[in-house]
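Feature request, filed as a ticket because there's no other form

It would be nice if the structure record came with a short human-readable summary line next to the tokens. Right now we just get the raw output. Example of a typical job, pasted below so the devs can see what we mean:
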Amino acid sequence: MSSAASQPNVLIVEDEPSQREVLAYNLESEGYGVSRAVNGEEALMLVKESAPDLIVLDWMLPNVSGIEVCRQLKTKAETRNVPIIMLSARSEEVDRVRGLETGADDYVIKPYSVVELMARVRSQLRRTRPATVGQVLEFDGITLDSESHKVFRDGNSLKLGPTEFRLLSTFMEKPGRVWSREQLLDRVWGRDIYVDTRTVDVHIGRLRKALCQFGGDDPVRTVRGAGYALG
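Raw output as currently delivered:
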């Protein structure tokens, strides 16, 4: 399986085709998975099907506005933590304040620099998906370096397969969070690949074996009827 499956997925919500494609091209060039929506209704439907890791959202959309999309997503528990970067030609301070108060995590005025926007995307993902932007993650004696693809536990170098590495990256980005098998399939294998949920159990078993190859307690917790968590 490609390691790209664990790369962040960005949803672009933009009704202007040329701007939408420029954004998609630059995001894909950075290695992100990209989904597209041309209006607010489609955006809400796509997010309901599978929440992205970040949303680039135009304010001026037909029918359901970007502000309304943002408001709806930020009031739901399952989507309120998805970062939203609002794009708008409205440059007045009152509009910027309104966008941020509605829940947008960042506000970018059109016309914008694509280079600056990509930097803002990385900044938001550094907060929510740190392993994907090269940060070293640490938890309870376990160190994961996503750039060098190395894992250590209490100073010992661990040998992990690529799938186990992506599983551990997912767990270490949010220690304590319970991930269902379906969520792990989406994050680690990718949304477009059919894999039986029992495959998750097999790779969790391999990850546990790898983490304990030099001794120590098993840090992966099974939550009956819910899934798995680290710590």
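Something like this underneath would help us a lot:
DSSP finds eight helices and eleven strands in the chain.
The two ends are 27 Å apart (CA to CA).
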